[in-house]
Amino acid sequence: MKKDMEYAKIISKNLRRIMYDADRKPSQVSKDLGIPKTTISGWINGNRVPRMKYVDLLCHYFNVSRADIVDEENGYYQKALRPDAQGELLALFSELNEDGQGEAISYLRYLAQKEEYKKEALVS
Asked: Is the pTM of this model over 0.70?
């Protein structure tokens, strides 16, 4: 059971990033693919693991590979973390005023404390 939940979290991260980059909301994917929104929500929230036929359907819909959806090391989420991400963060941060920078730091501290966002959280 623990393995299934780890797998669900990996798929969740990949699927969330795929949907974000494709600018698709769960309701749109649900409508386009004829899959109940609650099912898709279960996948993107990391509560359920999609059957392989749905993984293949998602692959075709988003034009990605199976590995992009189900792989932790070489999945879409990791590919999307560009090497210049730190530079992008610094550039965006420098555009903020003092209050905005404070808010950004507070939010990053909040995220860093959550187990689900820590790099080692998905390692068994």
From this structure: no
